[in-house]
Amino acid sequence: MTVPRYISVSRRTDIPCFFYEEFFDAWNKGEITYDGGYGRSYTVSLRQPDVLGFVFWSKDFSRFIKHPDFGSLIKNNNALFHFTLNDGGELEPHVAPLQTRLDTVRALCDMVGPQRVLWRYDPICKYKNKAGDSVTNSQGFFKILPIMAKAGISRCYFSFMTMYAKLKKQSIAFEEFSDTEKATIVAALSKAAADAGMRLCNCCNPEIPSIDTGVLQAHCIDDDILRETDRFGIHRTLLPAPTRIGCGCGESRDIGSYQQRCLHRCWYCYAGHQAPKGNVA
Predict the structure, then answer these.
(1) How confident is the model at residue 270 (pLDDT cuts 50, 70, 90)?
(2) Cis peptide before 10 (omega within 30 of 0)
């Protein structure tokens, strides 16, 4: 007997932005087969008896919410939406303009309700800009925060970038944060979030909640939120299922593949896709 579960779409690539047609085709078919790497593939049921709901992750839901099957999807399924919305500048050379993404946030909130939209300002990076100065991308948080709060979104998830070896090979020179720098940034984020009525959650930096008691441990697949937003009485308590150190996620099944190349190609991408020259359509 299949145990129903939440389907994550996806931590591995941006399916709602670039592979939404494949997702909706699979959803209509009732199952999806994805490349799990190392020569393995997996087939997962997307039929309602086997699915508690969907947790979507994207930097740009504009195409996804315009798909003709989107209305039926959210009418018949529980769904949460992690919307990564940074003011990334040179770190995100191929992401849609900020104003365009803000318009999409408002549209998504209108369609599904702001309680189902979770804002991610992620990751916070330190790097040398074109002038050779050490800078961070944290300032964009303060510009976007009041817009998210006005839209009714009540949670923001953030993390400090992890200096994986692959990032040291990028053309942009990333740098490690000192503990003092992290504490200063967290204090500013925490105060601004509290003033705006926003809950601030840290993902995968286990030391951060101890720096500032106003910052919560993130549970991006969150048992409490999924229970609160369950519209069909089908939620079951989720077992912890961390994906890396500091992760607070509950159990889910991710149906993305690293073979589905994300065309955002942000410089800090942990999947290691180098940002190309020129624009990406």
Answers:
(1) confident
(2) yes
User: At CB < 8 A and 24+ separation, what contacts does 267-274 make?
Assistant: 267/90, 267/91, 267/92, 267/93, 267/170, 267/171, 267/172, 268/91, 268/123, 268/125, 268/161, 268/167, 268/170, 268/172, 268/174, 270/162, 270/164, 270/166, 270/167, 271/12, 271/13, 272/166, 274/170, 274/171
Question: How far is Cα 130 from Cα 251, in angstroms, rounded to an integer?
Answer: 42
| Residues 20-53: tens digit of each pLDDT | 999 999 999 999 999 988 889 999 999 999 999 9
Q: How confident is the model over 54-67, as pLDDT tens digits?
A: 999 999 999 999 99
Which of 147-156, 203-212, 228-237 comes out lowest in average pLDDT? 203-212
pTM of the predicted model, to two decimals?
A: 0.95
Whole-number percent of the chain with pLDDT over 70: 96
**In 10 A of CB 54, how many CB atoms?**
21
Could you give the CA distance from residue 189 to residue 158 in angstroms, rounded to a whole number? 10
Query: What's the burial of 210, exposed, middle or buried (CB within 10 Å: 0-12/13-18/19+)?
Result: exposed
**Residues 256 and 12 sit within 8 Å (Cβ to Cβ):** yes
